């Protein structure tokens, strides 16, 4: 099986620590359900990701060098 | 006017309505289908009962006591003789019928399953997903059950015949069971099935022989277990489908018994929406105000479609009741029931598939409830999202190169109709009086005035002088003369700001603000450089103008929407406004070979610009007269300190040093509409205003230049010498020979296929290649005979219009015509036209046009050319409708996204879509459009500072960061202390 998370086009997905998550939610003044979603079955997710976790994605961007996106794991 | 405060909405609940609520809401029961009596007065308990609201002026509503106009109307109701299905809920009803028990009405799910779906439902609600999906999944799960897990009853399939009929499908023993068994026992020799004797059958099925014989004779109906055994033994089907129609009353009973807890699993709120309410027993009658009748010229009344429909319903309802009371046969009752169902269905939706629409006497389908709401002209899209507005005008557009790109020419007859509100003060009273004195018909006049007490007076030819205080009567009647505190609705005058728009409004540059220039005649006039953002031309295009009605709107339009603020497009961060067409040819001619002009000529070129003094001459010619070069004339338009260097349209280096065009030709890539380098640089470095001035002057200079040189095109410009034509014929004959060789090789089977292609495809490709090379060669030969100063060549090279391909098609050879990217292969069997042999693979037989447009096409060539052209037309037609719909969907999907102050993009429920707008949080028009074109921020900053500060000290002080708090009150320091004692003055 191909591990897509190793593919060069798949950006880095990491599970966000709970205390860092608090800061992120505070910064944007939101609940975690207001974040964009990602399915648990998504092959790009790290193995330890569980439903309810928040994933930090750092991807290369055309307009900035690196763009950070947070996503909530669902279902 | 009522002074009621509008109600504030916290939330909207959607649900089903209890029939009892309908009755409570109703002001009267409606029992007669008649509307008016012989005197023309509404009949009591009829469809036009005055208690349902009044529409005739002068009458008082018996329900609310208000008059027509303020009476909102009141609902009535019809008691239906028999329950009827509501068409809007047929899908949900089907689901519920399939998911609940036919006997005990409970949901066909075990307690565990119910708990699971309850969890999924709350999960879906929490994550904002569609609870409908959970309902569907639950029903799917429930349908799998053959027996009810609660009462054990066998469940049958429910079939739904659209729109409103439901059947229960049962498998029962066919009446022909004995014949079928006998037939199967005969066996079939062809398929190798042996005969079965009754003895054998008895043995196989474990049924006594006597029973078998009784079954075979038809005197005993086999029980279910016996039937299955026989079916298994003989491999036959002894059942037939028995459909049992479910009447609305049956369904109502069924739904009534569904427990509250069971429907909550499906996401239905039992408190607000009991499923049995989907079957109507009471029909609400909409107020008269929703279905007003109109009186025709001849005094006859014409009723609204809804009223017609309600009349039908009441008639059938009455007939149904009469027949039932008279004890009519079941068949007739059922027919009437179906008819009642039909009328109630079409009352709500008259465009149900599978049902003939109810029609008016004239044959026009009735417009019932759903038709009022649906679609483009419906209540939502037609009346709520879109409305007609006052202070707007629409007319044909035409060009006017003397206008600034910020301006729009407004016909005087439009200007006298559109008005701007002017508050009269002591300082502008003289002007105001002059407007009013001019009256409503002379141009800078006024149409209305408004007194300080709020009364509006129309300015007429008769009273205008008096209102302005310029006649004798006026002195007698002081109060009727305008003064401070009045408002004057004066005509549009030069310099007013208006909004201008051309549909389709696909991007924000489709709606821009312009300054008015009042002009004679009937068209809107605009500068040709604003055609690209509007995508306008002058072949009959019309545009809309909106006069703004308050100071806020005018200020916003001026600051944000004026054309000069839209020079840079947010789509790609470069200018969308710039020189077009002849402007480009003009600058090209002016700068290409750097021609010389004498003083008069140079001044003429610059006459429509701000420059009224020529710079130092570029040189002295042989006759001792000073001359100015084209590039030096062009440089007069550039900012003095501008520096720029890039590779230009025709491949030469364009160099601008200190505002002088040192080298290079000015054409499309330099000043054109989509990303003209110089326009872009000026806009970004010197601002929108400087850019506007530049574009305006550029276009006028270009027009002067092209008029100086003269620019025209004729058929001789695309004609080549006979010798060249002969050479072209030769190359084409050559290509024909090579195509013939290819075909021969193919027929001999010697053609080798290209990798991944069949032989046929290979042949096609090679022929296409050969022919396209022939066309190119013909084009090259033709090109040799065009000089650089050929007008068509000038246009193609400068990028003004057309391409070299267009030119070679006119002079050399039109080339291969294609449909769907292939040579033309359609028409008759094995050939394109009956002029050719079947299976002729030659160039001519498949749409190769060897003639040029100047020479003219042969009949067959012409036909092939029309085929190719048709495809292009169809393509554009399909593409515009497809992309229009795509656009609509995209707009609807994205319209509520908003960039917040923290830089995130969120939707209305505050869900984040982007964590930083565009990932970098910048506007495309404020940044460089690519890495090679950095915006010189330092340079701009130092230039601004240079202009601002005279001495280096001042500049240093500013930069050192000592900010003076300018917007604070003088008393700021004392105000900060809250507890300080207030020292009173008095």
Short note summarizing the structure:
Chain A has 75 residues and is an alpha+beta fold.
Give an overview of the whole structure:
The complex is a heterodimer of chains A (75) and B (986). In chain A, 15% of the residues lie in helices and 31% in strands. Chain A is built from 1 helix and 4 strands, in the order βαβββ. The mean pLDDT of chain A is 87. The two termini of chain A are 23 Å apart. Chain A has a single domain, classed as Eukaryotic RPB6 RNA polymerase subunit, CATH 3.90.940. Chain A is of the alpha+beta class. A 4-stranded mixed β-sheet of chain A has the order 1-3-4-2, with no helix packed on it. The longest helix of chain A is centred in the first third of the chain and has 11 residues. By secondary structure, chain B is of the alpha+beta class. Among the domains of chain B are: 63 residues, 434 Repressor (Amino-terminal Domain) (Orthogonal Bundle); 99 residues, Barwin-like endoglucanases; 72 residues, RNA polymerase ii (Dna Ligase, domain 1); 130 residues, Enzyme I, Chain A, domain 2 (Orthogonal Bundle); 155 residues, Orthogonal Bundle (Topoisomerase I, Chain A, domain 4); 65 residues, no CATH class. Chain B is 38% helix and 13% strand. Chain B contains 33 helices and 30 strands. A 6-stranded mixed barrel of chain B has the order 8-16-9-15-14-17. In chain B, strands 10-13-11-12 form a 4-stranded antiparallel β-sheet, with helices on one face. In chain B, strand 21 and strand 22 form a beta hairpin. The chains are: A alpha+beta (75), B alpha+beta (986). The interface between A and B is medium-sized, with 16 and 17 residues.
Defining key terms:
A: Eukaryotic RPB6 RNA polymerase subunit, 1 helix, globular, B: 986 residues, 434 Repressor (Amino-terminal Domain), Barwin-like endoglucanases, Dna Ligase, domain 1, six-stranded mixed β-barrel, four-stranded antiparallel β-sheet, 33 helices, 30 strands
């Amino acid at each position: 099986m191909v591990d897509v998370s190793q593919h060069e086009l798949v950006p880095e997905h990491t599970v966000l620590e709970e205390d860092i998550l608090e800061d992120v939610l505070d910064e944007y003044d939101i609940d975690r359900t207001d974040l964009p979603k990602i399915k648990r079955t998504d092959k790009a997710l790290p193995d330890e990701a569980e439903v309810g976790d928040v994933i930090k994605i750092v991807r290369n961007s055309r307009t900035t060098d690196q763009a950070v996106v947070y996503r909530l794991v669902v279902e | 006017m009522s002074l009621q405060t509008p109600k504030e909405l916290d939330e909207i609940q959607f649900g089903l309505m209890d029939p009892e609520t309908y009755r409570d809401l109703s002001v009267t029961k409606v029992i007669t289908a008649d509307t008016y009596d012989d005197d023309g007065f509404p009949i009591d308990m009829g469809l036009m009962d005055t208690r349902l609201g009044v529409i005739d002026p002068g009458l008082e509503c018996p329900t609310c006591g208000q008059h027509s106009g303020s009476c909102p109307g009141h609902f009535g109701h019809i008691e239906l003789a028999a329950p009827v299905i509501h068409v809007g809920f047929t899908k949900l009803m089907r689901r519920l019928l399939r998911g609940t028990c036919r006997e005990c009405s409970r949901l066909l799910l075990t307690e565990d399953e119910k708990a699971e779906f309850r969890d999924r439902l709350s999960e879906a609600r929490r994550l904002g997903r569609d609870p409908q999906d959970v309902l569907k999944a639950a029903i799917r799960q429930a349908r799998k059950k053959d027996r009810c897990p609660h009462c054990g009853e066998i469940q049958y399939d429910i079939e739904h015949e659209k729109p409103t009929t439901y059947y229960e499908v049962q498998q029962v023993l066919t009446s022909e069971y004995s014949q079928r068994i006998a037939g199967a026992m005969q066996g079939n020799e062809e398929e190798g099935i042996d005969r079965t004797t009754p003895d054998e059958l008895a043995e196989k099925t474990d049924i006594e022989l006597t029973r078998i014989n009784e079954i075979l004779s038809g005197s005993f109906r086999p029980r279910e277990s016996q039937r299955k055994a026989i079916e298994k033994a003989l491999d036959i089907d002894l059942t037939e489908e028995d459909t049992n129609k479910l009447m609305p009353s049956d369904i109502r009973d069924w739904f009534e018994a569904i427990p509250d807890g069971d429907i909550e699993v499906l996401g239905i709120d039992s408190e607000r929406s009991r499923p049995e309410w989907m079957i109507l027993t009471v029909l609400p009658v909409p107020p008269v105000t929703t279905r007003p009748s109109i009186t025709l010229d001849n005094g006859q009344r014409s009723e609204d479609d809804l009223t017609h429909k309600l009349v039908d319903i009441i008639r059938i309802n009455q007939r149904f009741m009469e027949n039932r009371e008279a004890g009519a046969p079941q068949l007739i009752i059922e027919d009437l029931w179906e008819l009642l169902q039909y009328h109630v269905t079409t009352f709500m939706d008259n465009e149900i598939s599978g049902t003939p629409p109810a029609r008016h006497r004239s044959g026009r389908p009735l417009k019932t409830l759903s038709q009022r709401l649906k679609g483009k002209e419906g209540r939502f899209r037609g009346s709520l999202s879109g409305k007609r507005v006052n202070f707007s005008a629409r007319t044909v557009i035409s060009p006017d190169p003397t206008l600034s790109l910020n301006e729009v020419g407004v016909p005087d007859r439009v200007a006298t109709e559109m008005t701007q509100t002017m508050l009269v003060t002591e300082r502008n009273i003289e002007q105001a009086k002059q407007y009013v004195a001019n009256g409503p018909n002379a141009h800078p006049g006024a149409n209305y005035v408004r007194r300080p007490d709020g009364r509006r007076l129309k300015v007429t030819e008769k009273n205008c002088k008096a209102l302005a205080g310029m006649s004798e009567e006026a002195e007698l009647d002081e109060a009727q003369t305008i003064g401070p505190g009045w408002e004057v609705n004066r005509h549009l005058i030069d310099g007013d700001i208006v909004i201008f728009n051309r549909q389709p409004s696909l991007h924000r540059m489709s709606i821009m603000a312009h300054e008015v220039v009042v002009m004679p005649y009937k068209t809107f006039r605009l500068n040709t450089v604003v055609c690209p953002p509007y995508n306008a031309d002058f072949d009959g295009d019309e545009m809309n103008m909106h006069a703004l009605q308050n100071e806020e709107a005018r200020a916003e339009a001026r600051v944000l929407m004026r054309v000069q603020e839209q020079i840079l497009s947010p789509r790609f961060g470069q200018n969308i406004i710039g020189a077009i067409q002849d402007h480009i040819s003009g600058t090209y001619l002016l700068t290409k070979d750097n021609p010389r002009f004498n003083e008069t000529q140079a001044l003429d070129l610059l006459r429509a610009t701000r420059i009224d003094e020529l710079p130092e001459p570029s040189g002295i010619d042989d006759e001792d007269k000073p001359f100015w070069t084209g590039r030096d004339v062009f440089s007069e338009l550039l900012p003095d300190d501008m520096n720029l260097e890039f590779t230009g349209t025709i491949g030469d280096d364009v160099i601008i040093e200190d505002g002088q065009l040192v080298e290079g030709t000015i054409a499309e890539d330099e000043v054109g509409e989509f990303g003209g380098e110089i326009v872009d640089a000026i806009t970004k470095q010197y601002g929108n205003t400087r850019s506007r001035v530049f574009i305006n002057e550029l276009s006028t200079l270009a027009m002067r230049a092209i008029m100086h040189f003269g620019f025209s095109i004729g058929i001789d410009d695309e004609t080549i010498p006979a010798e060249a034509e002969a050479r072209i014929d030769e190359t084409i004959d050559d290509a024909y020979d090579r195509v013939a060789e290819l075909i021969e090789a193919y027929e001999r089977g010697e053609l080798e296929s290209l990798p991944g292609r069949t032989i046929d495809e290979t042949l096609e490709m090679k022929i296409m290649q050969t022919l396209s090379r022939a066309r190119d060669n013909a084009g090259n030969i033709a090109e040799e005979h065009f000089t650089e100063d050929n007008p068509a060549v000038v246009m193609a090279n400068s990028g003004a219009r057309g391409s070299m391909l267009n030119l070679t098609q006119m002079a050399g050879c039109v080339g291969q015509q294609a449909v769907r990217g292939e040579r033309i292969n359609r028409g008759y069997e094995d050939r394109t036209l009956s002029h050719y042999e079947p299976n002729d693979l030659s160039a001519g037989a498949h749409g190769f046009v060897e003639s040029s447009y100047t020479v003219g096409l042969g009949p067959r060539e012409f036909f092939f050319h029309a085929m190719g052209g048709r495809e292009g037309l169809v393509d554009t037609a399909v593409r515009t409708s497809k992309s229009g719909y795509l656009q609509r969907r995209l707009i609807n999907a994205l319209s509520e996204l908003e960039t917040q102050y923290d830089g995130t993009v969120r939707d209305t429920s505050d869900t984040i879509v982007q964590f930083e707008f565009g990932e970098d949080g910048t506007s495309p028009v404020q940044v460089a459009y690519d890495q090679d074109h950095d915006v010189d921020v330092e340079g701009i900053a130092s230039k601004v500072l240079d202009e601002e500060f005279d001495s280096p000290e001042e500049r240093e002080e500013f930069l050192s960061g000592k900010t003076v708090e300018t917007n604070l009150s003088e008393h700021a320091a004392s105000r900060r202390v809250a507890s300080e004692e207030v020292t009173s003055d008095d």
